[in-house]
Write a structure and sequence with these properties.
The structure holds three protein chains of three kinds.
Chain A: E1 4-13, E2 16-26, E3 31-35, H1 42-50, E4 57-62, E5 65-66, E6 77-80, H2 92-102, H3 107-120, H4 136-148, E7 154-158, H5 166-183, E8 186-191, H6 194-200, E9 203-208, E10 211-216, H7 218-223, H8 228-233, E11 240-248, E12 253-257, E13 261-264, E14 278-283, E15 288-290, E16 302-312, E17 316-323, E18 326-333, E19 343-348, E20 354-356
Parallel strand pairs in A: 3-8, 3-9, 6-7, 7-8
Antiparallel strand pairs in A: 1-2, 1-4, 4-5, 9-10, 11-12, 11-14, 12-13, 14-20, 15-19, 16-17, 16-19, 17-18
Chain B: H1 2-5, H2 11-58, H3 80-87, H4 89-122, H5 127-140, H6 143-156, H7 163-187, H8 191-200, H9 204-233, H10 236-240, H11 250-255, H12 265-294
Helix pairs in contact in B: 2-12, 3-12, 4-7, 4-9, 5-7, 7-9, 8-9, 9-12
Chain C: H1 2-11, H2 29-35, H3 38-70, H4 75-86, H5 93-104, H6 109-116, H7 130-159, H8 162-170, H9 175-203, H10 207-212, H11 224-234, H12 238-262
Helix pairs in contact in C: 3-7, 3-9, 7-9, 9-12, 11-12
Classes of the chains: A alpha+beta, B mainly alpha, C mainly alpha.
Amino acid sequence: MSGIALSNLKKSYGDTDILHGIDLEIKNGEFAVFVGPSGCGKSTTLRMIAGLETVTSGEIFIGDQLVNDVQPKNRGIAMVFQSYALYPHMSVYDNMAFSLKLRKMPPGEVQKRVRSAADTLELTKMLDRKPSALSGGQRQRVAMGRAIVRDPEVFLFDEPLSNLDATLRTQMRAEIKELHQRLKSTIVYVTHDQVEAMTLADRIVIMRGGKIEQSGTPEDVFHNPASMFVASFMGSPPMNLAESTVYDNGAEKGVNINGTVSIISSEDSPLSSKAGDRVVFGIRPEDIVPDFESDINNKNWTASVKVDLIELLGSTKLFHFHIGTNKFIGKAGGRSNIEPGQVISVVMDMRHARYFDPETELIIR
Amino acid sequence: MSANQVVAGDVTSIKKSTGRSIISLSTRERINRAFIYLGLIISSAVVGFPVYWMISVSLRPNHETFALPPKLIPDNISFDAYFKVFRDDAFITYFVNSYMLGIIVTILSVILGTLVAYSFTRYRFFGDGIAKTFVITTQMVPAITLLIPYFGVIVLLGLYDTTAGLILTYLSFSLPYCIVMMTGYLKTIPKDFDEAAIIDGCSRIKVLYKIIMPLALPGMASTAIYTFLLSWNEFLFALALTRSEDMRTLPVGISMFIGEHSLKWDEMMALSALGSIPVIIMFIVLQRYFVSGLSTGGVKG
Amino acid sequence: MIFPILQVIEYSFYDNVIVTSDSTFVGFDNYKELAFDPIFWTSIFNTIIFTVGSVVGHLVVGIFLALLINSPIHPVPRAIFRTLLVLPWLFTAVVVALNWQLLLHPFGIINYALKDFGIIDSHVDWLGDESVAMATLLVISIWRGYPFLMISFLSGLQSIDKSMYEAAKIDGAGWFRIFFSITIPQLKPIIYGVALLDLIWTFQLFPLVWLTTGGGPGRATEVLSTYTYRFAFVDFEFSKASTVAVILLTFTAVLTILYLRKGKGKSEI
């Protein structure tokens, strides 16, 4: 088992720079998830770790070994592809045994490993079938089995669940998590689905435009987004963001939204900007609740708003409202009596508010 | 069926009208179908008669060929003509030449074509477009126009009247064709297979013959057969670039008998039938590929 | 492929190429000579008659048979008829020529049958009589060439969305109306592409003409391709042959440009 270290890793195709210097350390046994919109460079990074893309500059270490010029087969990795890439002309058994046979492993050992992997993945009955005779979920399992048999130092997953339907995806997500807990191997996992990232990761690496926006634990990334991008990318619905002006009347400091609503900041999340500064005020929907449901008793944090729209999610109700041109979403209990058009008083829990610089889009600490 | 499904409206009148229309529709359909079958049978008879006559003549003694009145079915079927063809050294030479030429050209161009096509699809090359233009030109430029400079070059290289000359000539037409066909085919095989195999521990060569070739086999087979047929049927270049009896291919060999007065029609027809059999068998086996190659959409044969 | 084309164009401006090593540049002399050659004009005229006649024949027969095969009949006879009707396409030109020479022989079965039915009074030498040779050649060419168009149309017909026919039927369109308002417009790109392709190929066709009539009798069926061949490999006048070849090339180039421009991405091959 070994960790992975990327140091100032760059990739360009001709004049187009895809990666602008990635620095990252993934610890031994860590489940790291790369997440970001398409074209952010997450797959390229993964493929460079795998050795499928050449390194333009920078270094990749797997364990203590610099692997820049090491053949993919000698990197101690196994990869699960988005398309699964199961060889159509080979049976499930042969698909799983292929890499072991190439390694000239004794036949007995090959058989033992394939059988044991098939057992764990409940594929034993399907070993003689061709991939075309399997369902989507079963193909996904074979793809994982093909990786498991090799007992690699590092597993690489490239959007492995994106071809499955929603129910199967949730189920396979749990299975991958279980697999990691059992094998305790290092995993690098690429996805564009932030829910997948949140649920699976020990460490989330959020990428955008060939750079790492933030890397940290799911809690950290969720509660302390480093930038407006992270704040709006993680969480569903995303964090509310509103341009506002800092005011300071000596006794109280807070933000003024649209010149109409003023909210005082909390000591738990201090506002360091000067009076008159423009800041982007961010607050998660779950931190905006109707006054009558809130146990916070702070008149300075309330605002009177008109509800535009209600979305019932079952256990919760999302209510949309606006302050000036800024749109907000708050969360109420599933049984709350709110109607569109109704004017209600909402409480914003400023202890969890975040402030961003509108120029750099980074968090102000 | 539709009559039972009618439920709404004035029940009696609907029943009446649909009932009537259904009867007339089905008789009309039956008459239509009879006409269609009649049309198909007559067309097939007209179109197929020359083929039938070829086989029929090949199965009768030569003196019965122009018997009056003509006998549609020979009095007694004899395979003598076929035996004579097989005993004739000249005919055997034509067959051997045609098969040898076809097989060599096919193997060379399919293997080389697959290799080149693989590199076109896996590494970004500008050659793809060139090969395509090449194929379009070979299909559009009159063969007779190309023949003259080819003749010049083949004579210059001292390859006139040699197998090598014909092989080279045919390769120049079939190789671009194979490259384009195989490029199209290999494009449908996702790169993921290559990458999975590389991670599994294959070298590029191993990827090609362990993963790509088995997957491309149907494509290679149809390309191979098409190439073989092009070579098998080719007449103009084989005629112009060879001279000696030993070098003649089947089409050129048969053509030498055209216009001769004391024609052995039974043997000629037997030879024609024998020469056509490979093509017809290949067509029937590969009908689906031929048809889908022509089709514009994803039509199933 | 560019090199041989340039080469043949170069040849056409020289004298005595290939056969002698001391050929000289003669400019447009070969072209001038050709312009005053009546046989050249005959062969152009013949080529056009042969090409247009063949292509029109291919189109009519091809569409007719494609429609017949595509009608709602049992799939097994459908497959059998399709294979039978494709047969002429599968024979190499030599076999076709030989086959028809047998059929059209003065004492052959066609003459016998036509006389028996009272259509002709005496045996006709179909390939040896100047007045009928071209017509005969056309029949053979149509017989040989229609299956390619038929198969193309057939696959085109099968790719027409069935719901369109159903919609038209519900709208009250009859068979005739459906054929001209749906089938033909839907097939149009294929018809156009395939007809042009056929035009290009028939224009340069050599083996079938050479082997059935050899351009004769006299020059009754001489087309540009046989004329070129005769110059090159009968008279060994490669310069003149190149000149005719260049003219043939010019014709096909124009047709090819038309084909590539209009039919882009419309039909394979």
